[in-house]
Inverse folding.
């Protein structure tokens, strides 16, 4: 069965989406003449500032291009749906945001992205642009703790990129921006739950099968297998499962502070996200952990997949400052 | 077949959602002790200001409570899913936001809402609070032009409430606030398209049937019948159908200005909304109409329904000022 989408030709979906984004957000972002898949902040890049280039496959909107703007990312390289951008748009983004202080590459830890961003870094090295790379690996379910370097990056990207973008905007050195980005990633934990598959614009076929009463804890944002497939549980039970998993690694002490993100994978509406958020806050209160700030909504999606993820960032004073730092992006702002 | 939702007991969904909203947005909104379905802005209401009370059924989040905050609505009365709030929370909201200059009631034109808000207005009149009511009727498909008073309010609420909230925040008189609210409604046009039904938390049954290749232009946000059920078309064709319908009534002249809202009804993702937005802007450019500002995202939903709506507000200088006026709400802000 073909799924229903409001699109024209499937192969045109990404470029037509970009057209619509430029139409809506021309005051914040622009597209480079040199590469139509390079989206650059109008007000972010400047001389002496470390540039922040993010990117990845399409289909996760508002990730990644929604987070391009002053105070967060300087540019995003756009891939096809669920596919890494090739080196070219990454290279053009890098050149466009280089302010002479080096460029930070940040993206989720997926093989295709690593290959293409690394290739871009080699190319721009010939133009004397120094690139450092920090991969996000916040998805607890994607590999065991002793293989943390194999974990994927998911919705926690939002906190990790936000912290790094703030460091860059504060005109810190490349060393300092890299250090803060690594710390942000080390202290960010995400677990998701999927209730349905999604379908790609080109095929309109579901990307996996799931029973009418099933859910899968820990499923990845491209349908990568999670920890367990089981009957659908209540919001509180699902949230507890996720929070237990996060607490198991984060081990927050009484009085510690966190930032909370409850994220929709696509078609799960705000009502359900806020019901989950209620339970997240209950659990944090019980443990004596202070919530510094909460975001609830769609930050990293998988097209129209039903499901949600919960992310906690274990704050210290430095990361708190980065999270609170103002930013003004096409699809997100902090005042 | 029961639909999948991340909830606990269906009957608790609305109150648990409100708990989660208060946990996330306690700096912006509060719940009244006198009625747990009354959500009030922390920073909006003040002496001498016309109070703006909005409200309606749950399941349309971020409508309506997401638009409570300084510069927009002072309070929202919360109903059960797809059901009007009873008079009590409306009355308590009214008393809480009354600054001695009168209170404006604004909500979509649905029989249950009209009955309950009118009853509340009668009750608070005994406390010498003067209430004026402006119903939103932006849904073109819901009744013919010569019966415009029968039309329902849908996503255009966002623009209409925004304009009225700005007028109130500018400390204009009740007469002026009412006049601007009516003008905002008169100049706002919405048409939606539905691709799937949704299901209520209590029943988890689809609220109507729709074929695998069907869409319905003009369907209401509770599944009210639209203008026509037909095979799914391309994004451009759907957008053209909607824009033609809006242009037919708005009749914008060359050089006129509009605000654009492309709204998801629930599970339709940003990619598809931006593809529609691209076509909206193409059509406006072709006609020589200037776009003052564009919003794309979820502003008035129907739980997890697939589909979208397009709203245009025909701006004049006064409405432009109201749309640009800053506001700071739980789920929306303008700087």
């Amino acid at each position: 069965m073909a799924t229903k989408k409001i699109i024209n030709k499937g192969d045109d979906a990404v470029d037509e989406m970009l057209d619509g984004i430029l139409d809506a957000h021309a005051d914040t972002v622009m597209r480079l003449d040199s590469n139509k898949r390079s989206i650059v902040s109008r007000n972010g890049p400047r001389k002496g500032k470390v540039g922040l280039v993010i990117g990845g496959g399409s289909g996760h909107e508002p990730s990644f291009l929604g987070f391009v703007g002053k105070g967060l990312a300087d540019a995003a390289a756009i891939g096809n749906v669920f596919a890494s951008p090739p080196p070219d748009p990454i290279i053009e983004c890098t050149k466009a945001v280089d302010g002479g202080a080096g460029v930070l590459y940040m993206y989720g830890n997926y093989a295709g992205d690593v290959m293409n961003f690394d290739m871009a870094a080699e190319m721009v090295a010939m133009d004397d642009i120094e690139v450092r790379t920090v991969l996000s690996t916040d998805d607890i379910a994607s590999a065991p703790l002793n293989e943390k370097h194999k974990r994927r990056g998911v919705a926690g990207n939002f906190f990790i990129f936000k912290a790094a973008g703030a460091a860059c905007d504060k005109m810190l050195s490349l060393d300092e921006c890299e250090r803060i980005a690594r710390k942000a990633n080390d202290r960010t934990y995400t677990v998701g739950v999927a209730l349905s598959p999604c379908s790609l614009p080109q095929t309109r076929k579901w990307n996996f099968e799931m029973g009418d009463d099933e859910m899968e804890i820990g499923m990845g944002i491209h349908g990568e297998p999670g920890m367990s497939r089981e009957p659908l549980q209540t919001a509180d039970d699902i949230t507890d499962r996720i929070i237990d998993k996060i607490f198991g690694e984060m081990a927050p002490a009484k009085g510690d502070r966190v930032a909370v993100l409850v994220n929709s994978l696509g078609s799960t509406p705000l009502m359900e996200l806020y019901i989950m958020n209620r339970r997240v806050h209950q659990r944090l209160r019980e443990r004596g952990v202070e919530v510094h700030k909460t975001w609830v909504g769609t930050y990293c999606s998988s097209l129209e997949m039903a499901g949600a993820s919960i992310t906690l960032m274990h704050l210290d004073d430095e990361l708190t400052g980065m999270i609170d730092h103002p930013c003004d992006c096409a699809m997100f702002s902090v005042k």
Chain A touches chain B through 68 residues (CB under 8 Å).
